[in-house]
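(Fold this chain)
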Amino acid sequence: WMKSESEGASGGTEGAKGRFPNLKNKSIWLLIAAAALGLVALLLPSPPSGTLTAPGMETAVSTAGSGTDAIRLQLAQELEGVLAAVEGAGKVQVSITLASEGERVYARNSQEDVRRTVEYDSNGGERDITEDSRQSEVALASGAALLQEHKPPVISGVLVLADGAADVRMQEQLTDLTATLLGISPHCVRVAARSGSE
């Protein structure tokens, strides 16, 4: 069995020599091809450094810390605009605390190769060898990382200060609206009257 494989391998080598009479030329072509692939890899756009991490082998997660304040302020401004339009609310200020700014999960190309070999020795012993190799890389589409899922920010608490919040009914209304708009539980929202409001 082993003899026939080695004969097949040598036959393949002879066929290659027939097609490439000069082995040196083949080496030169391989070097040129490798250099061309290297240049193509350098020219392809890559995701910004520091944004991709691979906690497991299946996903790459981006959580840039500098965006937390921008996200928090944008949410607060949008909520202030909506709540200030409620009749009787008056001037409104909102402060939001984020537990997480969200995350981006990028698709990955994964490949798994399992090889199993059974060896027998002359004494009748048997040895079973299993080799398992895995490779994973971020999937690209048009040269950019392929976004699989974008998880929204996780809000842990909201403070709403409003001129009209001295009225208990207004506090309840603002609490319900805030919880509904942000998709959070009402117990995460606190509404209080602004300083100087009547």
Q: What stands out?
A: The radius of gyration is 32 Å. Strands lie at 60-62, 92-100, 103-106, 108-120, 126-138, 140-141, 144-145, 147-151, 154-162, 189-193.
